[in-house]
Model the fold of this input.
Amino acid sequence: MTAGSMGDISRLWRDERSRGVIFQLMLVLGLALFIAFIVSNTIANLQSANLASGYKFLKDTASFDINQRLIEYSSTSTYRRALVVGGLNTILVAALGIAMATLLGFVAGVLRLSPNFLINRIVGIYIEVTRNVPVLLQIIFWWVILLALPKVRESLKIGDTIFLNNSGISTPAPVFLEGFSFVLIALAVGLLGTFVIARWSRSRQAATGQTFSVGWTSLTLIVGLPLVTFFAAGQPLDWNVPVANRFGRLRGGVSITPELIALWLALSVYTGAFIAEIVRAGIQSVSKGQTEAASALGLPRGLTMRKIVLPQALRVIIPPLTSQYLNLTKNSSLAVAIGYQDIVSIGDTVLNQSGQALEVISIFMGFYLTLSIVTSLFMNWYNKRIALVER
Amino acid sequence: MTDQAFHRSQSEMLGERPPPANSVGVIGWMRRNLFSSATNTLVTILSLVLLWWIVPPLFNWVFFDASYSGSVGADCVGHGACWAWLDQRIDQFLYGFYPPESYWRVNLSVILLVPALAFVLFDRLPGAKYGRWYSLAYPFIAAILLVGGFGLEGVTTDKFGGFMLNLVAGVAGIALSLPIGILLALGRRSKLPLIRWLSVGFIEFIRGVPLITLLFVAVIILQLFLPSEVSLDQLLRVMIMITLFASGYMAEVIRGGLQAIPKGQYEAAEAMGLRYWQSMRLIILPQALKISIPGIVNTFIGLFKDTTLLIIIGLFDILGQARLLQTNQDWIGKVDHETFLLAALFFFVICFSMSRYSLKLEKRLDTTRR
Amino acid sequence: MKMKLITGAVAAAGLMAISATANTAHAGTLDDVRAAGELKCGINTGLPGFAFTDDSGNWQGFDVAFCKALAAAVLGDTSKIKYVSLTGKNRFPALTSGEIDVLSRNTTWTFSRDVDLGFTFVGVNYYDGQGFIGRTKLGVKSAKELDGASICIQTGTTTELNLADFARDNKIEYEPVPIETNAEARAAYEAERCDVYTTDASGLAATKATFDDPENHMVFPEIVSKEPLGPLVRQGDDQWADIARWTLNVLINAEELGITRANAAELAKGTDNPAINRILGSEGSMGEMLGLSKDWAVNAISAEGNYAEIFDKYVGPDTPLGLARGLNALYKDGGILYAPPIR
Done:
């Protein structure tokens, strides 16, 4: 190498931009080598162990049963269908959990600031205990609690239609008869009408200050209209009521397994405690002057909380709330501990039967990544919507 | 006050009268805090009912009706908890399969951990300068103590278990993830697009998948990625994945710290003619890490709780030990709840105290910044 | 502050690196085991009678006893074993990757595992089959009458598949209640979350024995699957497979010939029975042919005794499991245990 080229190189290195390019190229090269190393090892190992790779196994027959399925499935279905059933079960428990955790978290967060000493402390204990005990233990705890419910033959029941026992909850399932679509149309009309009226009343209040009681009108529209249609159409609805078979098991209707309930409760209670702390911090972040101004205007405490404090607190609350939602979804993968058949639990069985570890685990990861991205996108959109509009 | 009471004016001030009896003392406190309004009273009564419903039965089960002695599950009679196993099994709950004659090594590493942590977490300790070197050396000391070497008898990692395994996994995971997390956080804020994208991709991937899937990778497929001559210890593979997992979260905590540093600091460092790494090392990171400590502690709490997932992949952490006892013929069906309750208590004590500490630190850092 | 944190963390990287052990696999398992000075044996994470820990944290059990016999045969020492506890999921990858030398974890010998997954089963040490246990008060006498029942099963095992097959075959509609572990399945069954619990017959007997009211439960007559359980090794190392296979056969032959833990050393000095002499090394050179020492079989038997002794110690009638020999009796005693002769 000549002295000149040495100089060129050192000049290149001293220039910040070209150094950045070189640095990045080196990184990419290193990464590519690393990936090549892993891939070649994997291929060699798979070959020496005589293992097939690829996703063709998804078309094979699953030959195991699943007790909770939102779509048609039997033991003659394929692995792919089994995994879809599992994925839907994960989404179900995550959605239920998010709704319940949010409710619980907001209530607990507000109560944590309650002037009532006793409730304030009880909520405090709830938050600290659940936040500091591993969620896996809590899932098992709720499952054990539910096992202690009455046995099937001694079910707690409401009028022989709704049953509660340690095998879950059974309720009648609606059977829609011909003509029920009219009721649905009526409901849609009611919802649309409410939406229009709410907009109109808001703009009128902004313009004139007059308020209009949206509550009663919307109730009439959303409940009354469909109800009238329902009777007018000749009650096109039947109920499939659960009936006990000779084992005392309730078949028919809708039944919710205790595993789903346990997981749902555990996830909501656990995440609810984190949300409560987020809500409390959010409320405390709203300056005291706002509350004082509201009470000076004569707003009652409840209304102040709903109309003044929470909307402002929400801006602080939403970003951390998003990550709690994501955590809840990810924690639902612990369902495997109590036998709730989510995607991981079913994937486990698939993995065991087919031996396709790489493929099954990549499906897990792809699934959760997709869920995470969708949740994040939605929450970001919501966050933008409620963000402070700076004028 | 006698006949003067009827005069319209008086020369001396009246003595301060005590407040009404119902506004002071226990009664006053209760009126103010428990029965100030109808709703409040209702809430109080409901709370009392709730407590009455939960607390006495719980205490009866845990303490008063419990059996404390016996050598097999059948010795536990009555409706209370069965604690008879504690005598024989508590060592395994704490130390796993670690050789009993070497328990002192585990104890010593835990004791040595306390000052090592203290020098990192507290600023104004005496001898902090040497203390930091000690914190630096601690991981090596602990590793030698636990696995052996330098005259200590070797202990293989399959002997690690019980609560000690949770601690090792949690502490090592967080310590190892710190440097990776710092690099990722800097990478995410880098001006070089490739580095930024790679960092973002890695962080979001790690944060988007559940830990359990990464642990499956560790026990089932990580071995596939390596040349067939190399076989890594199972615990080591698990530690690699736990570390990667923790570094994704660590990176976000540190990024928060970096973002909180005023822009002036960056500009000043540049104006001083410091290069990128110099300015990071000397100016930015010391400040960013300091305000990140509460977040790091919270990440640790989360990771520590997550170490319970080790049971799902067949390692004998404290829950694994609990399950071993539950499947033992002598105890089967008798200790299902008790063993898990004890494990929950262990976690609660540690996590609760750490979260208190982090809260306190957060407040203190908050005031110093204003 | 920063220096302390960064460098502290970098230093921590040493913690685990020290425990890293890079060893060579596939170079001949016997040589590997000898070089490492220990046998890496894959076992269950906890199964009553088959793999469990005693009060001092030592592994015991029917499956563990095979590890000990093998370690004794190869290394002459039952303490030189590294037990690797494996779940249903990671047991096969662990064997494939060389993390363990032998898997002794109540694993069913099936076609696909032997052929497709690339393992060699060295024999059967327990003939099992899947059965059902239910409450007598159900009034059900057979598994075929279970239409409409809720059935507890452990997930991730062949039991799930066998149950689905059985149900399809007999037109039974049932609610599967999948549960992760035996302990939880037992708890669920006891709380009547399910009417029936299905698992391997050995597990059923063990479970039944632990109920407060065993007389109120019955094991149904149907055995819905064949579950020959046995140890397995990686395919492709015939010498190692032979060692494992013949260690198992020695234990069974020892029972047949009346060689016990107590008298093995004594008989090894020479007897009038040439079959015993060949096994114990006073005649012939069986040990050398396997690449082991002359007294390999004496060591294997001295570890935990012959097959009958192991069976009686961990799962037999006098243990909490209380299993009868049944199919697992010697062919002479009405069972199907028949080990090829050592000659």
